[in-house]
Amino acid sequence: MTEAHSAKLAGKVACVTGSGQGIGQAIAIRLAKEGADVVVDDRVIGESAQQTVAAIQKLGRRAVTVQGDLGNPADDRRVIAEAVAQMGKIDILVNNAGVERRADFWDVTEQDFDFVLNINLRGTFFITQDFVNHLRATNRPGRIINISSVHEELPFPHFSTYCASKGALKMLCRDLAIELAPLGITVNNIAPGAIETPINKDLLNNPEELKMLLGKIPLGRLGTPDDVARLAAFLASDDAAYITGSTVTVDGGLLWNYQEQ
User: Fold this and answer.
1) What does residue 250 show for φ and ψ, rounded to 5 degrees?
2) What is the sign, positive or negative, of the torsion defined by CA atoms of 243, 188, 200, 207?
3) Mean pLDDT over each residue of the chain, to the nearest integer
4) For residue 258, what pLDDT band results from cuts at 50, 70 and 90?
5) What is the residue extent of each domain of the chain?
6) Which of 138, 30, 16 is nearest to 88 (CA)?
7) How far apart are CA 75 and CA 67, in angstroms?
8) In the chain, which ranges are E strands?
9) How far, in whole angstroms, is CA 7 from its chain's centroid?
10) Residue 76 predicted with pLDDT over 90
11) CB proximity list for 77: less than 8 A, separation 6 or greater
12) CA gap 194, 215 in Å, rounded
């Protein structure tokens, strides 16, 4: 390995959805640094996803790819099965894949609603169900980590579908934490604030809007994918064995300091 780490996840296998770029890519690489082998899932297995694989392999860990669009019900049912077939087991599921669509509420189409909810909520629900059934069949504990958003709490005008999906994910986390605890499975959400990722490319290219946002973040900077990845690695480890049903916010203080203009 190129870095000295404590290998807290040695012997574990993680599946990270949407890990071809951004936060998902950073999480996949961080889990590998901590000793895990990783299943890289993305809607398209292109150059970026292969870069994730190469970075993991450079760390001396195993990495395989699984193509899966969480907006497609058939893919939801296939990803875990293919991942297990290639790796033998999965111990950690990171539900990172997510999308958003901007629209005034009165202009939201059924297509936009379905696009956002099918990936952010429905897809997450059923891939998690398949993961839990895998753990039940093999009589093993596990970790579920959902990448939610500060918008599971914070209103985000013109993004009603996104807020609805993340609000639902908050309640799903709490409910599953109770239901799955007897199986030794923990469930937690990570709620990032403004992070430098491709989903925020419009913001990053708008200096005036970016300056306004930075003025609302007490720590004075955007977050990085690594800021989120470090927390994901902690929640996946035995150090977090007694944490379940929680949302941990990674936002530089934005949530409690934010005001709509």
Assistant:
1) -125, 90
2) negative
3) 93
4) low
5) 13-257
6) 138
7) 8
8) 13-16, 37-42, 63-67, 92-95, 142-147, 185-192, 247-250
9) 21
10) no
11) 126, 130
12) 12
Total H helices, total E strands in the chain: 9, 7
Alpha-carbon dihedral of residues 154, 157, 162, 164, nearest 10 degrees? 70
**Contact (CB, 8 A) for 251 and 192:** yes
Q: What percent of the chain has pLDDT over 90?
A: 84
**Active-site residue 162, yes or no?**
yes
Q: What is the DSSP letter of 107?
A: G
- Output the six-digit token pair for 57: 């392999």
Using an 8 Å Cβ cutoff, are 66 and 9 in contact?
A: no
% of the chain surpassing 70 pLDDT: 95
pLDDT in tens, 34-47: 999 999 999 999 99
Amino acid letter at 180?
L
pLDDT-based confidence at residue 1 (cuts at 50, 70, 90): very low
Under CATH, to which class is 13-257 assigned?
A: alpha beta
pLDDT, residue 4, reads 47
**Among residues 159, 162, 234, 258, which one is catalytic?**
162
* CA 123 from centroid of its chain's CA atoms: 12
For residue 210, give both structure tokens: 């970016």
Whether the CA torsion 120, 122, 123, 128 is positive or negative: it is positive
Identify the bridge partners of residue 144 per DSSP, sorted by sequence position.
93, 187
- C-alpha 109/C-alpha 224 separation (Å) is 32
Q: Reduced to 3 states, what is the DSSP secondary structure of residue 246?
A: coil
Is 60 exceeded by the pLDDT of residue 261?
A: no
Q: Which residue do the tokens 């005034």 mark?
A: 104
| Contact between residue 89 and residue 138 where contact means Cβ atoms under 8 Å apart | yes
